[in-house]
Design a protein that fits this description.
Helix content: 55-70%
Shape: elongated
Strand content: under 5%
Number of strands: 0
């Protein structure tokens, strides 16, 4: 079995000599990380959503301009751990600078450095005991699935597979948030299908979504080991 084509990894493409390629790669990373990063900033630094959005925007802009993410070393841990370490220092510096301006004084900045030897960011305790790492993991997983579902929807648009995706959304997306998932018989009545057609549509959509999730992970990890680790954590299976 050939290894995944790591040239597709946007984590690696942010090191490109082409500034347009770096910008496109960062946009792809932001598509997955924006919501998890925003949630982390709001919980970690206790800021309202508008301020949090400004901080996240400034972080990604600074990361592109100053090449922070290009310094990531895959041998030292997960990319998202490094990203969080960079994020925390950027936000701390931004808030310290803003506070200093209000006071009319100077400001000292927290040096931007990689995580500890275990590849993880420094401890981030908060007053209410929120587990920031766990919260970030949940939001990141949700974001990966959202991006993957968007990619699948783009593939289905204007094709015969639109019905399969609609059945899937009704059963596995909307149904997951409802008190009870609709039965296959109920889905068949709703969409004017046979139960066997519903079964086939769901089988196809679930398989293809899993493929899109793996592709999203492949694009946003920096090594074969990290890709397989993330796939195992998110899907509970070994990636092909």
């Amino acid at each position: 079995m050939p290894l995944p084509d790591t040239r597709r990894s946007v984590v690696l493409r942010i090191r490109s000599d082409d500034p347009r390629e770096r910008a496109r790669a960062l946009d792809a990373l932001a598509a997955v990380y924006w919501r998890p990063v925003l949630r982390h900033v709001r919980a970690r630094f206790r800021v309202p959503e508008p301020e949090g959005e400004d901080l996240v925007q400034s972080f990604f802009a600074a990361a592109l301009e100053k090449g922070w993410l290009e310094r990531f070393d895959p041998g030292r841990g997960r990319f998202r751990s490094y990203l969080l370490a960079c994020l925390d220092r950027h936000v701390a510096n931004e808030r310290r600078a803003a506070a200093a301006l209000k006071r009319g004084g100077g400001v000292s900045f927290v040096p931007l450095e990689p995580p500890g030897d275990d590849g993880r960011p420094r401890a981030r305790p908060v007053a209410d005991g929120t587990d920031l790492d766990a919260a970030f993991q949940r939001e990141w997983a949700r974001s990966v699935f959202t991006v993957a579902l968007g990619a699948l929807a783009a593939r289905c648009a204007g094709t015969s597979r639109e019905t399969a995706l609609a059945v899937f959304r009704r059963c596995d997306v909307e149904g997951a948030e409802a008190d009870e998932r609709p039965s296959y018989a109920a889905l068949a009545r709703e969409f004017g299908l046979s139960v066997s057609q519903v079964t086939n549509h769901l089988h196809w959509a679930r398989r293809e979504l899993r493929r899109e999730v793996l592709e999203t992970l492949r694009e946003t990890t920096a090594s074969e080991d990290e890709f397989r680790t993330e796939a195992r954590a998110l899907l509970g299976v070994e990636a092909p």
